[in-house]
Amino acid sequence: MRAKHLPPLKKASYIVLYIIDHLMRALRKLYVHLSVRKCGENLRVFGRLSMSGHHNIIIGDRCAFNEGVMLVAPRAEIIMGDDVVLSPHVLVTTDSLKHDTKTLPFPHISKPITIKDGAWVGAGATILQGVTIGKDAVVAAGAVVREDVPAGSLVAGVPAKVKRMRAED
Q1: Helix, strand, or coil here: 71?
Q2: I need a surface site. Which of 40, 56, 104, 141 has the fewest CB within 10 A?
Q3: For residue 31, what are the domain limits?
Q4: Model-level pTM?
Q5: In this structure, what DSSP letter does residue 26 have?
Q6: In CATH, what number is assigned to the domain containing residue 96?
């Protein structure tokens, strides 16, 4: 059975949308390259990206950011190694409030975050201040990471706990 061909107008609209999509990807990539302190080669940005504290963000080579990623680093650094993948709607924040005081407004707490080479952070995960995610570690979708993640481990839950070590390839 032969597939039906698209009408010329519909085909043209698909081509225009394809061009617009690729142009937007290129503009997002340029925005990141021009605004962060350091950005490696072959960055891939798929969808909206929100950043604050651009001067405190360092991105390695071949990293990928998916739709809705938020990088919040107004007072401390976010350092990402090579081949880091942030899935949709990941929040990485170096800031919090010290809420156990009676002083209002609550004072800020800021600590740097390091995400090492090959780490993968699943959709909707939150990485809190002062955390280091080890080399080749995986953070499951929806996890809230408030302590360091060992290299090669898989963490999940709220708060995130080590579930297992990843198999050697």
Answers
A1: strand
A2: 104
A3: 8-163
A4: 0.86
A5: H
A6: 2.160.10.10
